[in-house]
Amino acid sequence: MTAMTIGMRRPALWTPSDWNAFFGFGTNILVNMLVLTGLLRFVLKMPDSIVFGRILPALGLMMCLSTFYYAWLAYRLALKTGRDDVCALPSGVSVPHMFVVTFVIMLPITLKTGDPMKGWSAGLVWVFFQSFILMIGGFIAPYIRKVTPRAALLGTLAGVSITFISMRPALEMYMTPIIGVVCFAIILVSWFGGFKYPRGIPAGLVAIAAGMLIAWGSTLFGIGYGGMTLQKVAGAFANFGFSVPLPAFDMVFSGFEFLGIILVTAIPFGIYDLVEAMDNVESAEAAGDSYPTTQVLTADGVVSLIGCLMGNPFINAVYIGHPGWKAMGGRIGYSAATGVMVIVLSWFGIIALISSLIPLVAISPILLYIGMLIGAQAFQETPKLHAPAVVLALVPHLAAWCKVQLDGALTAAGTSAAAVGLDKLAQVGVLYHGLEVLAGGAILSGLVLGAIGAFIIDKKFVEAAYFSAAGALLTFFGFMHGESVGIAVTPSVAVAYALVAAFLYGLSRYPAVVMQPAPSAVPAE
Predict the structure, then answer these.
(1) Exposed, middle or buried: residue 125 (CB in 10 Å: 0-12, 13-18, 19+)?
(2) Number of CB atoms found within 10 A of residue 190's CB
(3) Tens digits of per-residue pLDDT, 506-522?
């Protein structure tokens, strides 16, 4: 058989192993849909007619277009290479943005105006600008990816996965351990240990079935472990119906009155999207599947714009986790099947019913598994000597996660860090200002710090100097180490990066220093 014949062999659109990935990824998407539905209904107080009749149908259309497109990209790659192990990129609503647009844009405007429709309109404008940033940035991202070490790209991605993807599911599991920990063990022995359940039943399905059995069994015996009640199930039927997405152009353009508030977060989070997408494409390539970065970013921008114009205030993104779904056996079909599933869930009002039947803690272990896999990949797919650079890239994300937890606790207590006093917090070991500065723009900070560390380890001081200079510029304008875009947001940090850039460039002028052999990763005592 010739290479040409191999290259033209038609890839299978569905394989038996796609069931595992479809169930795992589908439950991931389901969790996100349940969470954002809760944000809309219980945080923003939007009427169910808008949530189930307008927003969710538009969201379903956006995610269906996205998953079908990435299934097509995978089909094309499999056709080109003749391989039968190509896995489609996972995609869906961006989880970090889901919370940002809710709590930073939609909620403040809703509270200020007393009208959740105004908040919805502002959210649509936020996505409108994000979409164009993605489409334009798609032509710049491949160059950034080319010059950035893999340790930096995967390291900052691992930081996101360990903190904002893994930690909450882990905490939820141990708050309801009889369901969470048991379901986690069911998943681990299959996805890491290779154990096969009878008749090839997917481990995710076994885990959710076990979680439902424990939760509903405890309800029948009057214990109520897992929070499942028949009243919730009965109430969910009220939201059944068929709704298709309708144009929301008037809501989009009426939100331009809030443009000043929106751009403060739209620009930095647009850059966040560029870097996140690059990281995830890099992660897929490390797992063996090479996708064009420009096409990925442009597609995210286009489908997000379509969703926005139909009434969806949440942006689309390529997800972390491609290696995990590939390891489960995901190929082409799992992505397209997920798109069909999302249409059924969002256009028929089934989300409310599902949320009343399945305890969320039974799904949490799947997200923790993905976080574990991505965190491990950052070390496994980079040179051994670059391990310190990977750890360095993690640090800003740890600060960001700690700050979110601390801010939430202070807000619940009816106060803030400023009201308590930074000096008082420092006296008990909480260096709040340090968290604030280090956490700002964590994904960019992690990438820059990881790149500087990797280039220094390789004794490429000129390249390290360039990244440090880029860090100075990004910091000066607030994209790194700052809470908002502006001029001289954290000038002292910007100056520090500039001095480091000058120092590193100066070292490059001394060949004797550069040519010394690299030291061991662990210094001698």
Answers:
(1) buried
(2) 21
(3) 998 876 555 555 555 44
Token pair for residue 334?
């799992």
Q: Are 369 and 323 in contact (CB under 8 A)?
A: no
366 touches 191 (CB < 8 A): no
Query: What gap in Å lies between CA 86 and CA 7, rounded to an integer?
Result: 13
The Cα 311–Cα 436 span in angstroms is 34
Largest CA distance in the chain: 76
Which amino acid appears at position 271 of this protein? I
pLDDT band for position 523 (50/70/90)? Answer: very low
> Domain ranges in the chain?
18-175+240-355, 383-512
Helix or strand run (H / E) with residue 448: helix 442-457
pTM (predicted TM-score): 0.72
What residue type is assigned to position 399 of the chain? A
Quote the Cα angle for 119-417-314, to 5°: 25
User: In angstroms, rounded to a whole number, what is the distance separating the alpha carbons of residues 283 and 293?
Assistant: 12
Average pLDDT, the chain: 85
- Tell me the average pLDDT across 218-227: 75
Label residues 341-372 b or e (16+ Cβ within 10 Å = b): bbbebbbbbbbbbebbebbbbbbbbbbbbbbb
Q: In the predicted model, is pLDDT for residue 164 greater than 80?
A: no
Per-residue pLDDT tens digits for 7-57: 467 889 999 989 988 988 887 788 788 878 878 987 788 998 899 889 999
Rounded Cα distance, 448 and 65, in Å: 33
